[in-house]
Amino acid sequence: MARSALLNVMVQAAVKAGKSLTRDFGEVQNLQVSVKGPGDFVSQADFKAEKIVHDELMKARPTYGFLGEEGGEEKGTDGAHRWIVDPLDGTTNFLHGIPQFATSIALERNGEIVAGVIFNPATDELFTAEKGGGAFLNDRRLRVAARRVLSDCVIGCGVPHLGRGNHGKFLVELRHVMGEVAGVRRMGAAALDLAYVAAGRLDGFWEAELHPWDMAAGLILIKEAGGFASDMKGGQNMFETKTVVAGNELIQKALLEVSNRPVPSR
């Protein structure tokens, strides 16, 4: 597959960060871990990976803005472009030795995501997408799954944990969804979950309390793989509402409806 110069820069940054993460993953028990909040851990590996990605991207495009999970936002002089980066999505998985984590990089141009890269170094899976150019896993073209009814579908989600999210609201959503589908999965890395929707591994996905770096790259992957995504109100304000519902055209609409059903009367 042919890649633009910008996408090549993003791939190189993700792969370089991935090499660092792979080394630290092998030494996961020896990592220095600090606590950001209840149940939300950050490791030295996370900071190292973000520095690698930041340095690689800014070396190539020094005028672009940068929004990273760990380092916050830097305004660029360019004004039109911004990198959106999660250096280690799935930090808790990483720290527990579970090989379900990734580096996620997206490029935003005038408020629109135009390119995305998600790389899991543990499985050597590289998901890439560019506006109008399709979505790929390594060099294989991706399409969202073609299932037409929820009862045939496996749906991914995020589950709120200690100190995070609205537990009661999620339990209502889960009650509705689990009664309509073939299976529900919670794998602990939203960027990869969205990539899995693009790859047809998951038929759909919904989650609340996400940040732009959790979903930016995944959103363009899904779009370029023929899928659809919205916020949980059915709009396109995913970053503002911190919510996402994704799937193919039919499943996305059905999942949106089911996940928004009101609290049962009994």
Which regions contain 5 or more consecutive residues with pLDDT less than 50?
none
Largest sheet: 8 strands, mixed
CATH homologous superfamily of the largest domain - what is it? Fructose-1,6-Bisphosphatase, subunit A, domain 1
Oligomer: single chain
Structural class by SSE content = alpha+beta
- How much of the sequence is in beta strands? 25-35%
Radius of gyration: 18 Å
Strand order of the largest sheet: 4-3-5-6-7-8-9-10
Shape: globular
Please state the second-level CATH architecture of the largest domain.
2-Layer Sandwich
* Count of β-strands: 15
What is the third-level CATH name, the topology of the largest domain?
Fructose-1,6-Bisphosphatase, Chain A, domain 1
Determine the N-to-C terminus distance: 54 Å
Helix content: 25-40%
CATH class bucket of the largest domain: Alpha Beta
As for the number of domains, it is 2
**How are helices and strands ordered from N to C?**
HEEHEEEHEEEEEEHEHEHEHEH
How many helices does DSSP assign? Answer: 8
User: How confident overall, as mean pLDDT?
Assistant: 93
